[in-house]
Amino acid sequence: MLQRPGVTSGDFAYVTRAMPYLIEILLFLAPFAGFALWRRCNPGADPSPRMLWLALAGVGCGLVAAVWYGFSVRTRPHADYVPARIGEDGRVIPGQAPR
């Protein structure tokens, strides 16, 4: 296997393990960078009231969606969890908790 000088396979494994975290951090910081860029391009301008209401509506929709999702996937309290197992035909049967 050809490798670049000074780079070992362990270095590549570390980079591939760290990449998802780097992507998550960049996705988290993207809105803040966009707002900073907007403020830099429009130094004296304030966001319009319409834009503030739209942003507030977006946050509200996100919260409603998160609550709806939480209620849709929850299980009853103290439900017994059945772990994943391999069936008779060799297929994996996913774990589940009865609702």
The main pleated sheet reads as: 2 strands, antiparallel
Number of contiguous helices: 2
The string of secondary-structure elements, in order, is: HHEE
Structural class comes to mainly alpha
Low-confidence stretches: none
Shape: flat
Estimated share of beta-strand residues: under 5%
Number of strands: 2
Radius of gyration: 24 Å
Instruction: Going across the biggest sheet, name each strand in turn.
Output: 1-2
Average pLDDT metric: 85
Question: What separation lies between the terminal Cα atoms?
Answer: 52 Å
Give helix % range.
55-70%
Provide a descriptive summary of the structure in words:
The chain crosses the membrane at residues 21-39, 51-71. InterPro entries: DUF6111. Keywords: Membrane, Transmembrane, Transmembrane helix. The chain has 99 residues and is mainly alpha-helical. Among the domains are: 8-44, no CATH class; 46-75. The chain contains two helices and two strands; from the N terminus they run H-H-E-E. The radius of gyration is 24 Å and the shape is flat. The protein starts with 8 loop residues before the first helix and ends in a 6-residue tail after the last strand. The mean pLDDT is 85.
